[in-house]
């Protein structure tokens, strides 16, 4: 899938992608600075999209670690399956509210998300956040990219601590919320 096809998918499904463009390299780097890849056995990504964040994760992933990427767009999934054929990367065409079905008793060290929580129905986003928290180890982190600082209150309902950073080097400028 070419960049123009990816952009068409992005704009034609704005309510599920929640972005006007893909995450910048600066934003991805800022998000990934909160991840300690050494020793992380399982990482989950919610909303794989065009694979911008996925690529950053895969580039740093230990060979014996596993990455599960949840994406509801079939075309994004097909594109990512071609981009990331590694055995330790699973592209899952399903909603993030179904995380538990795919864990097989494992716990994740990190859940990284770029889901557009502002556009997701309250009951669904609560289910996604509950599933994410349940999926994490006791020392695990939920890390979210978002465009509204007000979402911090949503994350505080599910996680004890929420630290926030900001970058202007993205269109639009974005927050990275690190939740524990």
TrEMBL record:
Could you state one GO biological process linked to this protein? methylation
GO terms for molecular function, please?
O-methyltransferase activity
Which InterPro entries does this UniProt record tie to the protein?
A: COMT_C, SAM-dependent_MTases_sf
Name the Pfam families for this protein.
Methyltransf_2
Tell me the keywords, alphabetical order.
Methyltransferase, Transferase
Domain (O-methyltransferase C-terminal): residue spans on this chain: 23-91
SUPFAM superfamilies, per database record: S-adenosyl-L-methionine-dependent methyltransferases
- Name listed for the protein in its UniProt record: Phospholipid N-methyltransferase
